[in-house]
Amino acid sequence: MVRVKADEVARDNSVDKVEQILQGAMQEFLQNGYAGTSMDRVAVAAGVSKATVYSHFQDKEGLFKVLIESLAHQKFNSLFDTEPMEGEPKIVLRQLGSKLLEQMNHDHEHCAFMRVLIGESGRFPELTQICVRAMIKPMLETIAQYLVVHPELNITDPEATARIFLGTLVNYHVTQDVMHGRDIIPMESDRLIDALTHLITKCTD
Prior knowledge:
Blueprint: H1 2-32, H2 39-46, H3 50-56, H4 60-81, H5 89-105, H6 108-120, H7 125-148, H8 158-178, H9 189-201
Helix pairs in contact: 1-2, 2-3, 4-7, 5-8, 5-9, 7-8, 8-9
């Protein structure tokens, strides 16, 4: 029994260390970008030794990958796990759009991280591909599947429609917040979501 408890404590400590390292890594990546961040800097920011960082992550790319995947998992769960996509499309799609924009627009760390990803995409395309694979693809598949099980929408291409829905919201977030364009092309988020929902559900009116 004592050994089991000791193993559990060790696992808990390991999880805590990983979280500590990821928080330090986020701080460094946001401040210095991917190219300007080193494992030494991450160790200092996380308050752990360099050896501890390397005991959990083989290299900086692996660390960045886990950070993206962790963020993607959190975002996906907050959108779909707490409130599954069930119910009338007009209500569900509007709620999803509002929740997604609220999550992105009010998360300043998310905005800053998006700027890092976009800024580094030219030199490190494989890093942004991780984001597409871990975050965007599961969202698209979930939305498309919801559209498939609602034939009353009369949608001929659910996959393309899911891209239109999510892409419109992401574009709004990028132009308004990530690229600081809110004062240049102002628009209330409710207005965009209403129009987008109407376009997709108009066959049910």
